[in-house]
Design a protein that fits this description.
The protein has about 400 residues and is of the alpha+beta class. Helix content is about 30%, strand content about 35%. It has three helices and 20 strands. It has a four-stranded antiparallel β-sheet, with no helix packed on it. The chain has a four-stranded antiparallel β-sheet with strand order 2-3-4-5. A hairpin with a 2-residue loop joins strand 19 and strand 20. The longest helix is centred in the first third of the chain and has 96 residues. It is elongated and about 150 Å long. InterPro entries: Olfac-like_dom (IPR003112), Olfactomedin-like_domain (IPR050605). One of its GO terms (biological process) is signal transduction.
């Protein structure tokens, strides 16, 4: 082949090489593009798997936390059930002493007679005080009307033993829902219940004799025999209950026919104010154990039920508030001191300022030395002037 032929073939070879190079570059670009797509898919899948793994981890942690709470709740319920079983056994023992089966042997009747004699001996005994509280009410120093809320009858109160500032409201005389306001300011400013938290109780309540004491709600169950329910406000569970050992109970206040048991608190602890058909003219008083709801001691007081509208206990002395069927000015007209330190005739005759109608509830707070009252739908605070019993 001559040189001139080589020169003719050179452009053709160059063009062929360039075409191959272009095809190779296009092939490489296609492969790189495919590789980038696969890397992108891998990245998306990896991100999705990481998100799913994180969500699964959070879900597992949530389930573990829920399981731990349920375990604690079950443990608490088991402890509560054990306490209730113990309480039930005590109530069965009490009912057996009140309604014993026909004795098969003479020893059973003798034992029953001893138990009745012991109970009678404990009744109306002089009370040994737990504290050095020796104050009594001298007068009402001030009255503050906060607002008008809810029905004409009801109850509002604070925790009588704890440091909580929460306000608990029982609207009406029969319901199953308690309204809770975080502080006095919110209760005063808010005009609607939608601003309040709600606690739905497992059993409906009746009357206005309930009490919040040391993180627990003591309330009277509406249905069946008159039963005091101890309800834990923190975990919303029933801690204990007690059938009040009084046959044929009647309304404790003549002017408040919806209240059969008034649970009260003072410097000495927990009390129950009640009345029975056996002595229907006068009011009875009992000292309660806040932990077990056992009745430690009982008294028949000289305070009449007639024209009574409310009552509270201060330093171990029952103060009964009286009015008239046509509401006028309320007054403390009967005082019964379980320790015998204050004679009824030496107690001050305390008058409450003229208001709207009649008190449906009056709750004494021993920490603040004031009374939370409900008067015809108005919520009132009475601040009291105190003095020593020996100075009366």
């Amino acid at each position: 082949m001559g040189p001139w032929r080589c020169l003719l073939l050179l452009p053709l070879l160059t063009t062929a090489l360039r075409a191959q190079q272009q095809q190779f570059m296009e092939y490489v670009e296609r492969r790189l593009t495919l590789l980038e797509e696969r890397i992108s898919q891998w990245h998306d899948q990896s991100s999705r798997y990481s998100t799913e793994l994180r969500d699964f981890k959070n879900q597992v942690l949530g389930m573990l936390e829920t399981a731990e709470k349920e375990r604690e709740a079950m443990r608490s319920e088991a402890e509560s059930a054990a306490v209730r079983v113990d309480r039930l056994e005590r109530e069965v023992d009490y009912l057996e002493t009140q309604n014993p089966a026909p004795p098969c042997v003479e020893v059973d009747e003798t034992l029953m007679e001893k138990q009745v004699a012991t109970a009678k001996q404990r009744k109306n005994e002089k009370y040994t005080k737990l504290t050095d509280c020796s104050d009594t009410i001298a007068s009402i120093r001030a009255m503050k009307i906060l607002k008008r809320f809810g029905s004409t009858s009801g109850l509002w109160t604070k925790d009588a033993a704890g440091n909580s500032e929460k306000i608990y409201v029982f609207d009406g005389t029969a319901n199953d829902t308690v309204y809770v306001f975080p502080r006095m300011r919110e209760f005063t400013l808010f005009s609607a219940t939608r601003k309040a938290a709600r606690i739905k109780l497992p059993y409906p309540w009746v009357g206005t004799g309930h009490l919040v004491y040391d993180g627990h709600l003591y309330y009277i169950r509406q249905q069946g025999p008159f039963q005091v329910i101890k309800f834990n406000l923190a975990n919303k569970t029933v801690v204990d209950s007690s059938v009040f050992p009084a046959e044929e109970q009647i309304p404790v206040f003549g002017l408040s026919p919806f209240t059969y048991i008034e649970v009260a608190a003072d410097e000495e602890g927990l009390w129950a104010i009640y009345a029975t058909k056996e002595d229907e003219k006068n009011i009875c008083l009992a000292k309660l154990d806040p932990t077990s709801l056992d009745i430690e001691q009982m008294w028949d007081t000289p305070c009449p039920r007639e024209n009574a509208e409310a009552a509270f206990v201060v330093c171990g002395a029952l103060h009964v508030v009286y009015n008239t069927p046509l509401p006028s000015r309320s007054r403390v007209q009967c005082v019964f001191d379980v320790s015998g330190t204050l004679a009824p005739e030496d107690a001050s005759l305390v008058y409450f300022p003229k208001r709207y109608g009649s008190h449906s509830s009056m709750k004494y707070n021993p920490r603040e030395r004031q009374i939370y009252a409900w008067d015809d739908g108005y919520q009132i605070i009475y601040r009291m002037e105190m003095k020593k019993k020996l100075e009366v």
